[in-house]
Amino acid sequence: MNADDVSVKIFKALGHPVRLQIVKFLLIEPQCVCVLNQLFDYSQANLSQHLKILREAGILENRKIGVEMHYSVKLKGIEKLLAAMDLTAAEYFSTLEF
């Protein structure tokens, strides 16, 4: 696997609105999966699938605290990447003609 493969894997993982929101939320602070389950109106199985994709892309990490599973952002560069994406989205909207 080379750097381009990793980049594509990360972008694919962030390419779903729910996964993007999960990562943005976890950038604020690590959370228990039970909190994520309350915030996102998806079944536990669906949320688990999204978390699995983010973990497999290397974006998130998890650790068990007591009986709870806690998730946090593993790749600190993700915050800069998302900021660049927000700037790019703003640039996109500024080019639209109404």
Automatic annotation (TrEMBL):
Keywords, comma-separated and alphabetical: DNA-binding, Transcription, Transcription regulation
Superkingdom of origin: Bacteria
Xref: SMART domains: HTH_ARSR
Gene3D superfamilies linked to this entry: Winged helix-like DNA-binding domain superfamily/Winged helix DNA-binding domain
Cross-referenced Pfam families: HTH_5 (PF01022)
CDD domains found in the cross-reference section: HTH_ARSR
HTH arsR-type domain residues: 1-93
InterPro entries, alphabetized: ArsR-like_HTH (IPR011991), HTH_ArsR_DNA-bd_dom (IPR001845), HTH_MetalResp_TranReg (IPR051081), WH-like_DNA-bd_sf (IPR036388), WH_DNA-bd_sf (IPR036390)
Protein name: Metalloregulator ArsR/SmtB family transcription factor
Lineage: Bacteria, Bacillati, Bacillota, Clostridia, Eubacteriales
